[in-house]
Each structure stands twice: as C-alpha cells, then as structure tokens.
Design brief:
The complex is a heterodimer of chains A (256) and B (383).
Chain A (H helix, E strand, L loop, with lengths): L2 E6 L3 E7 L5 E8 L4 H14 L9 E4 L11 E2 L2 H13 L4 E6 L4 E7 L2 E8 L7 H10 L4 H8 L12 H13 L4 H20 L9 E4 L6 H11 L3 E2 L7 H10 L5
Parallel strand pairs in A: 1-4, 4-5, 6-9, 9-10
Antiparallel strand pairs in A: 1-2, 2-3, 6-7, 7-8
Helix pairs in contact in A: 2-8, 3-5, 3-6, 4-6, 6-7
Chain B lengths: L6 H9 L1 H14 L4 E4 L7 H5 L3 E4 L8 H4 L9 H11 L4 H5 L2 E5 L3 H10 L5 E4 L7 H22 L5 H22 L11 H11 L8 H17 L9 E6 L7 H9 L3 E5 L5 H4 L10 H10 L10 H13 L4 E7 L3 H17 L4 E6 L6 H14 L1
Classes of the chains: A alpha/beta (256), B alpha/beta (383).
Bound molecules: iron/sulfur cluster (SF4) (2 copies).
Chain lengths: 256, 383
Amino acid sequence: MNYIGIDIGSTCAKVVVLDEQKNVCLEMVQPTGWSSVDTAEEIKKKLLAEGIDPDASPCVATGYGRVSVPYANKMITEITCHAMGALKINHSQDALVIDIGGQDTKIIRIEEGMVKDFIMNDKCSAGTGRFLEVMANSMGMRPDELCTLAETGGGVTISSMCTVFAESEVISLIGRGEPKENIAFAVVDSIVSKVASQASRLHEKGEAVCLTGGLCDCEYVCKALEKKLQSQVITSPQARYAGALGAALAAAKIKL
Amino acid sequence: MEIIKELPEVFEEFADARKNSFLAVKELKEKNVPVIGSYCTYFPQEIPMAMGAASVSLCSTSDETIADAEKDLPKNLCPLIKSSYGFAKTDKCPFFYFSDVVVGETTCDGKKKMYEYMGEFKDVFIMELPNTQREAALKLWKEEIICFKEYLESKFGVEITENQLRQACKTNNQVRSSLKGLYELMKNDPCPITGYDLFKVLYGSSFKFDRSLIPAEVDALVEKIKKEYAEGKMLEKKPRILITGCPIGGATEKVIRAVEENGGVVVTYENCSGAKSIDKNIDVEAEDIYEAIARRYLDIGCSVMTPDTNRFELLGRLIDEYKVDGVLEMTLQACHTYNVETLAIKKYVTEQKDIPYLAVETDYSQTDVGQLNTRIAAFIEML
Ligand code: SF4
Ligand code: SF4
C-alpha cells in the first residue's frame, strides 16, 4: 500500500508518496500552470507511470488547489499539512514553522504535535515567492540566480513593501546603473524583513525556526533570515515538500 | 398554531423577514405609525415602543453602496459605517427612507463623525453614549434616555407615560427571554440546529415590527426543535465554535458559512447579532424605570467601552456554558476598537480559558471567501 500526498500550491504542485513503513518512496514537483484540474490529471498520469494507482491508494490533497483533485479521499488545509510535514522532517513535536510559499507566507506554532496558532499573509505578495519572481523577472534572471547573487551585494534597500511599487524601484535602480548584486541583495532583504516582522507575532527571541516552502532551497535566504530573526533557521532539501509530506502522512491514517 | 410547518421553512421565513418587512414598513407609514431607525445595540428600543412606534435596525450589510459612500467618506473606514451611510445617501434602503428620525449613538469615532454628514439630509438624533460604565456615566446615559423620550414626545406630539414604558420593558423582556430560550438550545451537544439557522432567526426577529408577537412565535419554534431533538433529530458531533467581534449580517455571513462548511458548528454568538443584545433584561420593578433602562443598556460589553470588562465576563460565561472548543473573532477592516481589543481577547481565551482563538479581519466584499475558508478550516482542524 502507498500513501499519496498532493500539495497544489499557487506556483508549484508537489507530490510525496510514502510506502507501507511511511518512508518517502517518491517525490515530484511541477509547475501548477493555469489549471489545477489539469495539474491534478497530469499528476495522476505520472503516478500511474510509476506503478501507483491514486484511485486505489489513500490520497490527501492540500494547498489552494486542493479542491481540484477528484481522486483525493480527503482535503486538508496547507496549515495542518505543513505543520505535520515539518514535524516529520525535524523529528520533533514542537516547532515554529515559517513557510514562504508562492503567494502567501505562513507562520505556524506547533506544540506537542498539534497546531497551536498560526498567522497567514495572503492579501499581499510582499514577503512571498511571488515578490521574488516579479523582481527576478524585471532583472532578467531566475529567482534562484537572484538569491545566489544577493550574497555578494549590499548597501541598497527597497523601501516599498508593495510589489508594484517595489518593481518600479528596482527598475529605477537598474536605470541608475546600480550593480545587480546590490539590487538582488535589496530584494532578498525586503522579503526577509517582511517575513521576520510577520513571524515576530509568534516567534520568541532566539528560538530556532523551521523554514519550509520553495525558498528554502536558497542558502542565502536562510542566512539572511537567521540574521534578521537572530535565531537559527533549520531547513533541508525535503522542506519544500513539507506540505505534500504532511498530506501523505494524513493519507496514511485513512482506511479505504 | 404554525407548528405544522417544517423547521427549514420556518428558518427561511425568518431569513426573509427583512425583505418582507419592506412592505410592512410601508403599511405602517400609511397607518401613521412613527418609524424610528437605529444603528446600535445600545439603542434603548423600549422608548419608541412605549409610544407605539416601530423601531428598525438600519445597519447595512452589503457592499452595494460603498463606492457611493466613498465620495464623501475615506476609503479606510469600517465597511459598516460606509455601507450604512451609502444606503442612506442614495436612498436605497426603504427602512431609512421611511424612518421619521434615525438615532445614532456616540459609539466609535467613525460612526459619530459620519452622523454629522447624515444629519445634512435626514433628522438624526444623537445620544451621547459614555465611553465608560462608571456611576457618573450611568447618570449621563439616563439623562440622555430621558432627553430622547422628550424629543420623541415633542416631535410626535404625544406623551410617553411611565406605565407605557414599563409595559414596553415587559414586552421586550419577554422577547429577549424567548430568543435566549432559543439560543440556549445550542448548549446541547450535539447541537439541534446549525448556527446559521439560529442566526437567521436571531437576525430576522429584529425585523419584526410588532415585537409583542415574537415570543409566541419563537417559543413555538423552541418547542418544535426540542420535540424533534427528543426524537433524535440532531447534527453530528462537531467542533463547537463561538463567534465574537464586530456585528455580523449580510455580506459577513460568509464567516458563519465558512465555519459550518468546514466541519464546525457555531454554538453561540457573543457579538451584537447574538447574546450581547439579548443576554440581560430590564428590571421592570425598579423604582426608577429610567435608571433601570439606562443600566441595562450601558452595561452592554462592547469594545467602544473602556475598560470593556463586561465583554470578557459574557465571553467567559458563554465559553463555559456552551462547552466551546474554539473562539473565532471576526473584525471589520478599520474597526479600531475591535481590532485593538483582539490581543486582549486572544490572551483571555488562550490563557484564562485555555482554548484556541483565531481572529479574521474582513470587509463586505466576497473576494476573500477562499482565504477565509483556508484559515477557518485550518482552525477547525486544530481543534
Ligand atoms: S459593536 Fe458596539 S458599537 Fe457596534 S452596534 Fe454593537 S454595541 Fe453598537
Ligand atoms: S464595527 Fe467597529 S468601526 Fe464599525 S461601526 Fe462598529 S464599532 Fe464602529
């Protein structure tokens, strides 16, 4: 028996499949594209190609596209799934999770294995992957390139929190001939400041945090966040799959 | 009696009460019955009742006229204020149109300044509601109530006697007791009805102009629900949610739906749509009936008061009595008093009562329904 977790986020869809012993036996990621219904269909094909039948295996869908997975047995919100995934990755029962997603940022407080409190920013793209994407685009590079470049820059800040205004700031910085690494630094700094200020409502001084979501692949983002929060930031390559992993763990509790 | 009707039908009738009373208010006008419009739970309904006038709540609950209101009012103002002003200004609310006078209280700053503009095109009577609940405040509020009575007397050329006033208090006490009898059914676990159906009755009953008819109707409903409950008609066991915060109605019913579509049940409303406006009765035997009325109303807990001890008292009592699993606070954007108070409420709920708390800030648009659903579903998953 396999347990399937599908996390359809605003930019990427992530899939985690667990085996009988709840070990990860498959991880997949793909862009969500225009239609989450089509994405769910593609995922199904890919799973079948791997010899996993989603119609016959317990399956939980999460993320904003969770309603578009017809073969899922259950829908669970991304808050709960990220929390459960992060606990598994960190082998602990208590944590403060920061998830920087494509279109929102979540701060989740977990105590004794249960979600105790959470904050979600989803009205504004400041401090999200979307912000990074827009800025990277206007600088003509990939988001991950921007993050790596940021490490070598400094000395510039973007004052506007709003993506639209921030983009015009970036464009005028480019026009002024500001070195790219400095602009990249300012972009990452803006995201990290926004995330840190959101987290401050739940974060205790010095407490280690777990970072999940797409941005955790970028080492410099973690470093910058560590500096802002003055706390250790724990992450792992698996962390971008935290939501799907949590969903798969929930699927393992379903009796078909 | 109407006992033959099925429950869903009864709930829908209440839900339609507002719509249906558009006609009723016109009929009242044709019979020369004065209509008094009001905006707040602190409004002492018994005064107009005593002179045989009808009173109607004018709080607007849709975003239809917000754009019109924003021609005169700032954008970052509470939607309840903007919408109420917008409906008044554009004459789209029949209740407003037919009101001979509308009564405003000096509650929050936004409302009180908005009334100044409203006064330019409508008879607006302002009552000075104190910001505290001390004895000196009680004295002031009592004077304001007497002033209001005298204003009505001279405007309509009538006399309001103490006897009439006591009678009105008695009637309205019965109304409150009956409605309380209804919402107290939700103490049952599992619940007999959904929180949304309960809401429809509570909200709908405020649009019945002849208040003396409410008790019999609601009592019959209570009997029917009790009978069906005894026969095993009930909801499944679900996480029990208390709703607190700004008034709910119309557009913001999305919050109630989000709870109940995601596996929870709203067992009680602490806000103006529920217990806050019904919980306490007036002491009709009191020697000074004006003081008794003043005390009953002034004691209402609302974030416009400082300190707001009574809100916490009622909240705590409801949490215990209704075996609440989680508290959901809905605040309206730019409502400073409630938004500021969320921190104190959160602390009280999570530290003193030891149950989870979630605050959601919203407005009258429907664009955030998806986000509300995710937040509220995650909250219910926590319980
Ligand atoms: S929330 Fe307060 S100010 Fe608003 S209607 Fe209710 S009692 Fe009045
Ligand atoms: S919801 Fe808040 S801001 Fe709006 S009218 Fe009521 S007290 Fe005032």
